[in-house]
Amino acid sequence: MSAHGTPIPMQSAPCGPLNGTANVPGDKSISHRSLILGALSVGETKISGLLEGQDVLDTAKAMRAFGAEVTDLGEGNWSVHGVGVGGFAEPANVIYCGNSGTGVRLIMGAMATSAITATFTGDASLNKRPMARVTDPLALFGAQAVGRDGGRLPMTIVGAADPVPVRYEVPVPSAQVKSAVLLAGLNAPGQTVVIEREATRDHTERMLAGFGAEITTEVTEEGRVITLTGQPELKPQVIAVPRDPSSAAFPVCAALIVPGSDVLVPNIGLNPTRAGLFETLRDMGADLTYENPREEGGEPVADLRARFSPDLKGIEVPPERAASMIDEYPVLSVVAAFAQGQTVMRGVKELRVKESDRIEAMATGLRANGVEVEDGPDWWIVTGMGHGKVPGGTEVESHLDHRIAMSFLCLGMAAQQPVRVDDGGPIATSFPIFEPLMTGLGATLTRL
Ligand code: S3P
C-alpha cells in the first residue's frame, strides 16, 4: 500500500534487454543501526547514503520520540544528536514501526534496559509477526512485555530499572534477535554474552565496535560467542552507508533472466554474512562477476556485473548458506523458474515469519504463473522451465511484502505474458526508486 493505504496495482510486461548501471540505495540493515547507535551516542553522528525507505524513516521518527535530535539534511545526509547509552526519554506516544521487523525489534532492545515504558505497533503485516523471540531474552534483563495473544504487537515494554547482564543462546538464526540482546546489553552492567549457532549478519557487532564499545566475537564449538561490556560511552561516528546487496539482488536477477541483458550494479557490500545469493547464482551458472573488488569502511565491496545467462541450472542450495541470503530466496525462486532442473531450498523455516510467509506467497504466485513448486514446513523446490518457457499472465498478491512484489515484477520481465501485482506500494519500504531504476534499465513497469 502507499503511505496513504491505497493499494498500488502494478504490471511488469516482457521487455527487451536490460542495460546500464543500477545505482541501488543504501543498506537497510545498516541504515536502521546508524540511526539507533547514533541516538545512543553522546554528540553528533553524521550519516551519508542513508536509505530513505519508509522502514528507516519510521526508525528515524522513533529515535526522535526517545529524545534524539534527528535531522534530514537532504540527499541521503542525516545528522543524529544522541542522548547516550541509558539516556532514552520515555516517548509521549505509541511508537509506530510501520512494516519493519528490524526497526521494532532493535528499538525494543535499545530501550529495554532503561527505566521507561514504550508501546509499539505496526502495520497489518508487522502486527502478525512473532515478538516473543525478542521479549523472551529481554525479560532476562528484567524488562516486562505485555502484548497481544501469541506475543504480537501492539505491545508495551516496561524497561528494567536495574538491568542485569545476560548470557543468551539465540534459538533461531536471527540477526534481529541477536542485535536486540546486544543493544539491551549496552545499558546493563558487566558482560552480556550472545551465542549464535549459525552466523547471521554481523553489522551490529561491527558497528558497536566502530562506536567504541568493547565487543569480541569468538568462534567456538558452541558457535559464535559474542561478548559485550555494558555501559560504554558510545562515540559519535561519520558513517557512509554502503549500498544494499538485498536491493542489488533485483537488477542482478532480472539481468540474468532477460535475454541480451548486461547490467552493472556498483559499490555493493559483499560482507560474507550477506552475500550468499551471489555465490548461489554463480553455482547455478550465472554470468555474474565481481569487478574492482576493494575494501570500504572495513567491508568488502565490489561492482557486480550481471549478464543474461542462457545456461542456468537448478541446484541444491547449501542450507548452511541460508542465513547469508535469507531475504533473497523470493527472487532466487524467480531465477530458478528460468533454470533447467530443480532448485532445492532447505533449512528456510524463517521465511515463513518474514513480512509475509514468503514460501507460501512465492509458491502460490509462481504456480499461478505456470511454474511447478513443492513446499513443506522448512523447504521448497522450484522446477525450472528454462528461458522463454515461463507462461506468466496472472495477478499475484504481494501480502504487504516489498520483496514479494519486486520478485514478481522481475518474473514479468522475462515471462511470456505480463505479470500483475495487486499492490506495489510496499516496495517503498526498502527500495523507493525501484520503479524508475528498473524502467531506466529497460523494464516495462506500469501502474494500473
Ligand atoms: C535483518 C535481519 C533479518 C532480515 C531482515 C533484516 C537485520 O531478519 O530478514 O530483513 O537487519 O537484522 P531476522 O533477524 O528475522 O532473520
Structural overview:
There is one protein chain. The protein has 448 residues and is an alpha/beta fold. It folds into two domains: 223 residues, UDP-n-acetylglucosamine1-carboxyvinyl-transferase, Chain, CATH 3.65.10.10; 213 residues, Enolpyruvate transferase domain (UDP-n-acetylglucosamine1-carboxyvinyl-transferase, Chain, Alpha-beta prism). Helix content is 28%, strand content 29%. The strands form six sheets. Strands 22-23-1-24 form a four-stranded mixed sheet. The protein has a four-stranded mixed sheet with strand order 2-15-17-16. Strands 4-5-3-14 form a four-stranded mixed sheet, covered by helices on one side. The longest helix is centred in the middle third of the chain and has 13 residues. The chain starts with 9 loop residues before the first strand and ends with a strand. The model has no long low-confidence stretch (mean pLDDT 97). The structure holds shikimate-3-phosphate. Shikimate-3-phosphate binds next to helix 5. InterPro entries: Enolpyruvate_Tfrase_dom, Enolpyruvate_Tfrase_sf, EPSP_synthase, EPSP_synthase_CS, RNA3'P_cycl/enolpyr_Trfase_a/b. One of its GO terms (cellular component) is cytoplasm.
In short:
The protein has 12 helices and 24 strands. The chain has 448 residues and is of the alpha/beta class.
Alpha carbon gap, first and last residue: 14 Å
Shape summary: globular
CATH class of the largest domain: Alpha Beta
The CATH superfamily of the largest domain bears the name Enolpyruvate transferase domain
Order of strands across the main sheet = 22-23-1-24
CATH second-level architecture of the largest domain: Alpha-beta prism
Total beta strands: 24
Q: In percent terms, what proportion of residues is strand?
A: 25-35%
As a whole number of angstroms, the C-alpha radius of gyration is 21 Å
Number of separate helices: 12
CATH topology of the largest domain: UDP-n-acetylglucosamine1-carboxyvinyl-transferase, Chain
Average per-residue pLDDT, rounded, comes to 97
Largest sheet: 4 strands, mixed
Q: Name the helicity range.
A: 25-40%
Total domain units: 2
Q: What structural category do the secondary elements indicate?
A: alpha/beta
Which compounds are bound in this model? shikimate-3-phosphate
Low-confidence stretches: none
